[in-house]
From TrEMBL:
MF GO annotations: ATP binding; ligase activity
Protein name: Mg-protoporphyrin IX chelatase
Record keywords, A-Z: ATP-binding, Ligase, Nucleotide-binding
Gene3D superfamilies from the UniProt entry: Magnesium chelatase subunit I, C-Terminal domain, P-loop containing nucleotide triphosphate hydrolases
Lineage: Bacteria, Pseudomonadati, Chlorobiota, Chlorobiia, Chlorobiales
UniProt xrefs under Pfam families: AAA_lid_2, Mg_chelatase
Family: Belongs to the Mg-chelatase subunits D/I family.
Chain ranges of the AAA+ ATPase domain: 30-215
Its job: Involved in bacteriochlorophyll biosynthesis; introduces a magnesium ion into protoporphyrin IX to yield Mg-protoporphyrin IX.
InterPro entries on file: AAA+_ATPase (IPR003593), CHLI-like (IPR045006), ChlI/MoxR_AAA_lid (IPR041628), Mg_chelatse_chII-like_cat_dom (IPR000523), P-loop_NTPase (IPR027417)
Pathway per the UniProt entry: Porphyrin-containing compound metabolism; bacteriochlorophyll biosynthesis
Length: 345
């Protein structure tokens, strides 16, 4: 079978805000994903697959469809073994290395396909649980990519966002339930012209970016040239970007290790709170996401203290879809400009 070549993440021209939002979610999965709004043909899916391709391989328990880490709680591993009919003891488990997966969710996916199903007939006959894992099992420790998320059934979107927030997926049928880890980076894309998400669902995405086609002729030419070279000699093209890709991977690894050590002063926390109040954000999720994003940005830049620039940039990513707006008004994408107007008034 011919190997499928993945376009290098670092070779993508422009779309810096989208790339940054994806990287931040890899460093800190508790950011609850990113919603990418914009027209088609702007490298959304290319960026997601490319980022997953350069990430380090992960250790998984061999033979299980849940992408479980060998360091997972032994009770969780034992429970997952039992529901797929595998009688292997914990002492004889094998591990293997796998690439981080990008699991794509089709628009017509049902709840059972996403969550998984219980074999009720087997449960009634044998008195034991048997399940058919869903897409959330495959997405654990990976990336769940949902194209046209605004066209999905609202209930399915609710399930996705609940799992992304809690890190757990629960399958319940006729009084029988089973839960398994489901920690993943959620990436949703949508074209606003095809309809919006409900505000309650918008708010559950940690970050939001608006992307458009590049209008600079020189950059458009660069996109064409790079794509042509990639399709003509993919291995050579990928090789030419290998050093940059490895540098990014190392930067991400260092940021993940540094994040728990990042501090933020109370004065900075007050700035975040005032930021959210001044632009009109309901609830407290916006404050918390800005805090997490600012700390992640500091770690990404190799610092252990959050600076004002981190908060400003975090607000640009975390607030656009949370700003209170009038009916039929589009999402406010330039939060800094809105804050400036509010201050002038």
């Amino acid at each position: 079978m011919k190997k499928q070549h993945i376009y290098p993440f670092v070779a993508i021209v422009g779309q810096e805000k989208m790339k940054l939002a994806l990287i931040l979610n890899i460093i800190n999965p508790t950011l609850s994903g990113v919603l990418i709004r914009g027209e088609k043909g702007t490298a959304k899916s290319t960026a997601v697959r490319a980022l997953a391709d350069i990430l380090p391989e992960i250790d998984v328990v061999k033979g299980l469809p849940f992408n479980l880490s060998p360091d997972e709680n032994s009770d969780i591993i034992r429970e997952c073994l039992s529901v797929v009919g595998d009688a292997v003891s914990l002492g004889s488990l094998e591990t293997e290395k796998k690439h981080v997966r990008v699991v794509e969710l089709p628009v017509g996916a049902t709840e059972d396909r996403v969550v998984g199903t219980l074999d009720l007939e087997y449960a009634l006959k044998k008195g034991e649980k048997r399940i058919e894992p869903g897409l959330l099992a495959s997405a654990h420790r990976g990336i769940l990519y949902v194209d046209e998320v605004n066209l999905l059934d609202d209930h399915v979107v609710d399930v996705l966002l609940d799992s992304a927030a809690m890190g757990v997926n629960t399958i319940e049928r006729e009084g029988i339930s089973f839960s398994h880890p489901a920690r993943f980076t959620l990436v949703g894309t949508m074209n606003p012209e095809e309809g919006e998400l409900r505000p309650q669902l918008l708010d559950r995405f940690g970050l939001c970016v608006q992307i458009e086609g590049i209008t600079d002729p020189n950059l458009r030419v660069e996109i064409m040239e790079r794509r042509y070279e990639f399709e003509k000699t993919p291995e050579s093209f990928i090789g030419s970007w290998k050093a940059d890709s490895e540098a990014l991977v190392q930067k991400i690894k260092k940021a993940m290790a540094l994040y728990p050590k990042v501090n933020i002063s109370r004065a900075r926390l007050l700035e975040i709170a005032n930021y959210c109040l001044e632009v009109g954000v309901d609830g407290h999720r916006g404050d918390i996401i800005i805090l997490k994003t600012a700390k992640t940005l500091a770690a990404y830049h190799g610092r252990t203290e959050v600076e004002q620039a981190d908060i400003d940039q975090a607000a640009e990513l975390a607030l656009p879809h949370r700003v209170r707006r009038q009916p039929l008004q589009d999402i406010v994408m330039d939060v800094s400009r809105m804050l400036k107007k509010t201050a002038e008034v």
